[in-house]
UniProtKB/TrEMBL annotation:
Biological-process GO terms, alphabetical: 'de novo' L-methionine biosynthetic process; homocysteine biosynthetic process; transsulfuration
Family named by the database record: Belongs to the trans-sulfuration enzymes family. MetZ subfamily.
Keywords, sorted A to Z: Amino-acid biosynthesis, Methionine biosynthesis, Pyridoxal phosphate, Transferase
Name the UniProt record assigns to this protein: O-succinylhomoserine sulfhydrylase
Organism listed in the record: Belliella buryatensis
A GO CC annotation given for this chain: cytoplasm
Cofactor: pyridoxal 5'-phosphate
Molecular-function GO term, any one: carbon-sulfur lyase activity
This enzyme's EC code(s): 2.5.1.-
PTM-bearing positions, type N6-(pyridoxal phosphate)lysine: K204
Catalytic activity as recorded in UniProt: O-succinyl-L-homoserine + hydrogen sulfide = L-homocysteine + succinate
Subunit structure as annotated in this protein's UniProt entry: Homotetramer.
Amino acid sequence: MSHFETDAIRLNASKSNQREHSAPLYLTSSFTFDSAEEARAMFAEEIPGNIYSRYANPNSTELIEKVCAAEDTEDGIATASGMAAMFGSMAALLQQGDHILASRSLFGSTHQLLTRVFPKWGIRSTYGDISDYKNWDKLIQPNTKMLFIETPSNPGLEIIDLEWAGQFAAAHNLILVVDNCFATPYLQQPAKWGAHIVTHSATKFIDGQGRVLGGLILGKKELIQEVQFFSRHTGPSISPFNAWILAKSMETLAVRMDRHCANALAVAEYFQENTDLDFVKYPFLKSHPQHDLAKKQMKLGGGIITLTLKGGIARAQRFIDQLQMISVTANLGDSRSIITHPASTTHSKLSEEERAKVGISDGLIRLSVGLEHQEDIIKDVERALEKSR
Ligand SMILES: Cc1ncc(COP(=O)(O)O)c(C=O)c1O
């Protein structure tokens, strides 16, 4: 294994007889066999090889190999979206009657999975508050099988101690699943702290240019075998085109994340000095309540900032409407800076009470800091703050 940056660039699909330098796009539903015997042996898994793109495709295999190297995980699958990965990680590894313990601060759709989808099949869950993690053993039930967490959380930027989570999962014999979407493997590698499964929405920083959807489930070989079986027969597979895009994006993840993080820190520091704000939250600001923990387990602070303006929701909306460059859209992790109002968009399906429990006030704004020049990002924000007073 080489360095992170080198593996992300040099782990490539094997060359075809055209001797291409950059991996080509394999737009093919199926792959041919040299003989009836070879077809039989591949289906029987006696010899390796591509059979059908719902199972595997050179583009998805290259993506998986690159992200496994980055995460330090043994194996994985790539899925059509991040939510297919969240769903698959639970559906493949749990059975009727199982119980999930999850951190309360989860992405809105993951919350819907736990509270609306899985209960239909007899899989129930309990939320633990991050501030109260010392008491989480009281939340364990005899049928608890999985610990599902997201750190930093979307959008609250709450940080969970991965070392603690690894030890807690081991002590209670739980499968630890970590949604590593906000940090990316460049900033933190949950498997090193004992996570059995790491999930991603590759749609975000892994793509990095807001082009395609994708997801990943990575982890220990014996668990991934279960996930592969589930995926082969239920079909959440990524398209070869999206896998090709994402495998190319992995080549620039390290340099992009360095810049996302430098820009986000500069913007967060600007906000910290500004009297228009009630608060600004960024993992690498000293004022973040878990700043020391963020420093312990993250290489840099990430590309996301949350803030609340004085003047509540009306001011937040005026501010968003006054931005000239920063995009108003629901994605994050793009080269373009993006502003989102979680209470009315990504987390609107949660009740007001549920949002309050995970720190999403009506005035909360999420800023995904892009790769534009940091002075231009700050200029846009500064102008909009003034105009929205
Ligand atoms: C933390 C987190 N997990 C999962 C997802 C879902 O990913 P996708 O939109 O690719 O399905 C998102 C999307 O915003 C997310 O932020």
